[in-house]
Structures
1.
Amino acid sequence: MTGRRQRGELKAALLRVLRGAEKPMTARELRIALEPDVPAMTTVLTVLDRMRVAGEVERFDRPGENLYASVKSDSRYTADAMLTALLDSSDRGAALLRFAGDLDESDAEALRAALRAAGRERAVDGSATT
């Protein structure tokens, strides 16, 4: 390892790798995925076990080496973080307005499409869409 990580940095890196993985991974595979800043195997195993206890990862017992997978997909994790931030806001309307105003056009269109798919979008003039 080239330097000391900030608190929570290894956990975040492991979750990013697991959320991007197509299948559960071993601790050894996760460690390699963190190159060039590779932590000790015991450190990876300790963080994975803490994440398992916290309900953030699942461990699948396999003879010789366990497999690990994120409990949440990347999109679910992001959505939960956004909802948590919104719930913590003292002015949800203002927070949503600021958020929507800060989106680039492609993200704004993706949000409109998601609202349509959820049956929640209203046209800019206030009339319901069908």
2.
Amino acid sequence: MLTGKQIRVARLYAEGWLNKRQICKRSKINRTTLFNWLKLDEFNAQVKTFRDDYVKRVRTEGIASLENRIRLYNQMENRLRRVIDERAKDPTMKSVPGGKTGVLVRRMKSIGSGENQTMVEEYEVDTATLKELREMAMQASKELGQINRAAENEADGEELTIRVRPVRKRASDNDTA
């Protein structure tokens, strides 16, 4: 049966963050002891158990989990949309063309210098936020299997060919009123 110290060392070894010298220093054991423990079947079995548990947790927790990633995308999208909604409510933006959409940002720009310097307002579409929303939606769709290869090509900027089937005209379409 392994001692508490051996179990702690097996965990450090399984995590893979420290090299053998660092493990020995942190655990206050000499390298010979570690190398002898590494020859023990029971020690190696414990290392394997810790590694297997770690791999299982990595695959099911945090961002590695599909459900968690989609939840994160949804949270980020909601936050960005809240920013857009709050901008749309800003009373100073109501008189600006497009200001009520919430996708415009106001920037102050300095023109001239010295005594002739004046500050002017500039408005532009917040393309960075819109791009982020679009990319999150694309990534979520991809991960959920809701996007086909043609849409991926379009998103990657590759040429996309769309085939359109002819639609038969109904007799009522030919009538002119």
3.
Amino acid sequence: MPREDSSWDWDRKSRRYRGKDTGRYMSHGQVTNLRDKYTDARRTTIRSLVRETLPLNAKADPLSWNVGVRVLREKGWREVERSMIAQYTFGRGGTNAMTSADRVIVQQMLRDQKGYWDRFMMEALQSPDMSMEYAANRATMYADASTAFYERGRETAFDIRLPGHPGDGGTECLSRCRCSWEIVERKTKVEAIWHANGGDNVCDGCRGRAAQWSLLTFERVTEGT
């Protein structure tokens, strides 16, 4: 995840990141790679937290399991929330680009995700056969869901509304999606292209989105028109 004090900056006019010293814009691939590296790092953090908090399985030590789940419900959610806010902020153009409207969007999205997280934690309390590894795998899906927050931030940066986002749960890969929207500002329009990233691992739903959303155009209202 890029940091505010790194060697790049957000260019408001082009709505892209560029090098502070070189002036060169980061490519779509470079930015998507940063998005995914951050997601992977957060997956590792959340998986480690689950392993540190829960015993091997609920059946072997139900008391420790129940105590651990209650701890994880709070500590785990804080890590998930941090991931999602950071990704939206990155997509939006950094902390300085965030507005009150962005914060409302983020809070609405977080509210939905918190509901899913709480249901997962309730399931963990009520499932005597759940293992720590299963819980860890489920928990990492919430780190993966931060991808959708990044893409929503990108959408908002360009002041457009896209029909779907990578990681929004609308395809077979659910939150594990690594596809991306490439959004380009033109003089009188904005163009958006869905890239099905992942080679042979791309699910059918994402392939369908790539075909259906190979080029979306959003016209800008210019002065004198």
4.
Amino acid sequence: MIGDRIAVNIAGGLEVSLPRMVDVRQKFKTERIDSVSASVTAQFRHPDVRDRVKPGMTIAVGCGSRGIANIAERVRTVIAELKHLGALPFIFPAMGSHGAATAQGQRKVLESYGITEATMGCPLVSSMDVVKLGTPDDRTPIWFDKAASGADAVALVCRVKPHTNFRAPFESGIVKMLVIGAGKIMGATAIHRHGFENFKEVLPQAGRVILHRLNCLFGEAMVENAMDETRFEVLGDPQPFDFDAQGNLTPLPTHVTQSRE
């Protein structure tokens, strides 16, 4: 057992006086939604979403490797709502090189979150095969999951948060998951070669290529509070999911689920 005092040998000694220390307690707001499944279901009642999901459509639903609150419940509800509208959804791992950059490893990551074919009620297609969708102006190859690219539409279930290594209009969220997560190890490697300091320009450029080549249906994105609980969710409007002349993603959510404290 570690005691309350630990002897530390400091080479040369410590010849400076330590400042006065005080205990600080911080109370974070813990606003959250009551029911994740109910909030997702409510978003699918929006006409803009229902009109774009056609019976018989194959829809690839990308899921990442992050330990997101209520991730299995959110994915299961998205799949159920898509099936209710007559679509044929399947899940694919959108996690770049995570899961040891193998198909089985990425499947195991999702299974550890409770995302399996049995629990979700749809196929889970895990493969490292990718297709090249094109190149932006800097000639960086943009890769995308092969099975997902062959579907009639793509959707993502993800979290939006600040990234730990860079600041930009797009950090950890829908665009990064499309570009790096769905690109598997090939896509992740191609983008990361630019370095985090260039992600501000690289992510929008790569995202534009993907959004112009594929039918990106929506991003079911959520934000967590300081206690890692689901604070609110947004179902992004699919077609306005594009960039303006300045390279900014057009933010037109169809529905925001309100949270409570």
